[in-house]
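Supplementary Methods. Inverse-folding protocol.

Structures were first reduced to a discrete structure-token string of length 351. This string, shown here, constituted the complete conditioning input.
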């Protein structure tokens, strides 16, 4: 059974003016007039998903090998992020495989090594969490650079440099982007997303739109063959007279978006046939209760408009720190939205 979780939102954007919740225009300074943020102080205050701080070290140099990864020029050269928010960069890989990234605040005396083999799995996060395969391939691969900025940071600007590396530590070309730290509240959640949504189905093949064999709407069931002996049920694999559901599962997977965040709530209910207390005309079921069948997740997200990649960020259930998953936003209407993840489409409907 597959389970899917989503998380709350912070979307980076740049502009000289923006609107507050009250509709007032707020002037933002141009990048050239913003103060430069101290790179070493910033490095000490940030958290990098799957990142290890390599102190007092020189940033790795590009490998002069044809097999090394090659990164495309980024669509976005300037990113905006609120104080205490999440900076998410999704590189575009032209060739080679990517096992992780080297990331540095330009001018700092140390850098971070982002290693996707640290992703020990996503509890209830669902689809094909193969750690060794994460980030492999070309295009907008399922990997990102996710950085949590400290809330105490002053508004200003800094430059971030990054490069990809493969499993043999062949290093790609180095890319530099500018980041502007903005004052004010995060007001990035689209009004169309605000509200509570329930998981409808997962398509095993998003091109053909075929629903999988399970769904939180219909649940699942496992049936065994029984025969009736003196009014009681007797399990008999050789008999095909009576196929009775032995285990029945029901699901409730919901996500609530607010202006300032989100809550994902997953519950699973399973009932099992009590053969001893059942009769041929009355089936008795007992509900199984387990804390492992309930998950409440709260987090943040970031959206890359150029690639339509939605990165879901939350606290890891392991010792990694930050955990994230990246989806492609395929559809958003007043009544539903659809994400693509791997070879599946995940559809939610508004309650």
């Amino acid at each position: 059974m597959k389970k899917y979780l989503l998380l709350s939102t912070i979307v980076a954007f740049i502009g000289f003016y923006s609107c507050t919740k009250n509709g007032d225009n707020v002037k933002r300074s141009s990048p050239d007039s913003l103060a430069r943020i101290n790179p070493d102080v910033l490095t000490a205050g940030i958290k990098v998903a799957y990142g290890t701080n390599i102190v007092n070290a020189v940033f790795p140099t590009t490998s002069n090998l044809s097999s090394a990864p090659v990164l495309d020029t980024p669509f976005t050269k300037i990113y905006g992020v609120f104080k205490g928010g999440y900076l998410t960069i999704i590189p575009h890989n032209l060739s080679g495989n990517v096992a992780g990234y080297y990331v540095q605040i330009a001018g700092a005396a140390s850098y971070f090594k982002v290693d996707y083999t640290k992703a020990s799995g996503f509890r209830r996060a669902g689809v094909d969490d193969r750690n060794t395969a994460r980030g492999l391939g070309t295009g907008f691969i399922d990997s990102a650079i996710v950085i949590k900025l400290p809330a105490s940071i002053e508004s200003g600007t800094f430059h971030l440099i990054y490069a990809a590396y493969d499993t043999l530590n062949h290093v790609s070309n180095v890319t530099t982007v500018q980041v502007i730290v903005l004052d004010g509240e995060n007001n990035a959640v689209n009004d169309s997303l605000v509200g509570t949504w329930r998981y409808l189905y997962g398509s095993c093949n998003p091109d053909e739109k075929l629903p999988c064999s399970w769904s939180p709407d219909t649940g699942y069931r496992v049936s065994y063959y029984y025969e009736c002996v003196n009014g009681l049920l007797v399990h008999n694999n050789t008999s095909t007279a009576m196929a009775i559901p032995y285990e029945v599962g029901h699901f409730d997977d919901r996500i609530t978006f607010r202006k300032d965040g989100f809550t994902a709530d997953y519950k699973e209910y399973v009932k099992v046939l009590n053969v001893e207390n059942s009769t041929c005309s009355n089936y008795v079921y007992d509900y199984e209760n387990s804390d492992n069948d309930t998950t409440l997740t709260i987090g943040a997200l970031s959206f890359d408009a150029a690639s339509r990649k939605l990165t879901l960020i939350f606290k890891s259930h392991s010792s990694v720190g930050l955990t994230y998953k990246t989806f492609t936003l395929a559809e958003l209407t007043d009544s539903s939205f659809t994400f693509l993840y791997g070879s599946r489409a995940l559809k939610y409907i508004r309650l």
